Amino acid sequence: MIKLSHISKTYYKAGKAIKAVDDVSLEIRDGEIFGxxxxxxxxxxxxxxxxxxxxxxxxxxxxxxxxxxxTSFSExxxxxxxxxxxxxxxxxxxxxxxxxxxxxxxxxxxxxxxKAEQRRKALKLLELVELSDRLQNYxxxxxxxxxxxxxxxxxxxxxxxxxxxxxxxSALDPTTTLEILRLLKKLxxxxxxxxxxxxxxxxxxxxxxxxxxVMEHGKLVEQGDVFSVFANPQKEVTRNFLxxxxxxxxxxxxxxxxxxxxxxxxxxxxxxxxxxxPGVSEPLIxxxxxxxxxxxxxxFADVDLVDDAPIGGTVGVFSGEPENIDAAIEYLRxxxxxxxxxxxx
Length: 345
Ligand SMILES: Nc1ncnc2c1ncn2[C@@H]1O[C@H](COP(=O)(O)OP(=O)(O)OP(=O)(O)O)[C@@H](O)[C@H]1O
Ligand SMILES: [Mg+2]
What we know:
The protein is an alpha/beta fold.
């Protein structure tokens, strides 16, 4: 559906060149939900604005959407292409002096369809986003989640094949975020909409994306299935993202700054087990306890489902005979559990 080849974008400000996007090539398949993550300033928004040519990429880059090479299109040709690509934003960008219904009607007015038809369509879209009871409200009378649903209905007015979401849930609380993500998933399934989600919230990607690309300093540094990227991250920036998002990183702080809180007895080991494969459903901890005559005092655990496969880990203290602990660690490693010994007495 979308193919970017060697996309770069350089901004020139006060005689200085800023390379916001640096030679990115990427393919997004028809009907998938694709995530783009990266820390602030990585170039995510710039890259996504190249997809609908709101930003013209530097010479040499190619943008294809739905099989059409649009990089060389004229402004009027681009207008037609852009109607196939909807976009939503962090701050909703609704028209404050128009009602919910009028906001959704607005893009329909220029499509040469009869008024009654426009209205029918707007009402149908607002029903789809579950706002039929709010037609006459103004944006200021709505919650953030409701505003974003109006923005989604408006973005769908031109029957797009692609929806670009730039930090669409960043201004929302966790529950409302989940509601919006559920809605996006429904639109993806019901309408076959291809969705590109830019976010710095890892949980958003975990919840609904099939594949993900990681950006850093304008470059695409890693991409793949959400599960393989998160279960086995290759790049430091990806690992940092994951660490920041789970409580398992607290173990490092504990080992480094407050090892006294662990009360480790001689021979005991403070460990972090990270599950990187499908084996997490096996009762691994009770198995090693029984098999190797050791105990694990669990301090905390964080196990999550990514793309319906379990991922995460457990942090705790192993006690027992040192050789038994070592054998247990070996056993766990053979079961594709990453075992880190963070402290020992
Ligand atoms: N119009 C512009 N003129 C000059 N520099 C720009 C412009 N737009 C973006 N940049 C620069 O390009 C780089 C990438 O910006 P971009 O907005 O794409 O990052 P981002 O990954 O979306 O960040 P965030 O997560 O904060 O939204 C930044 O260094 C930014 O300052
Ligand atoms: Mg951005």
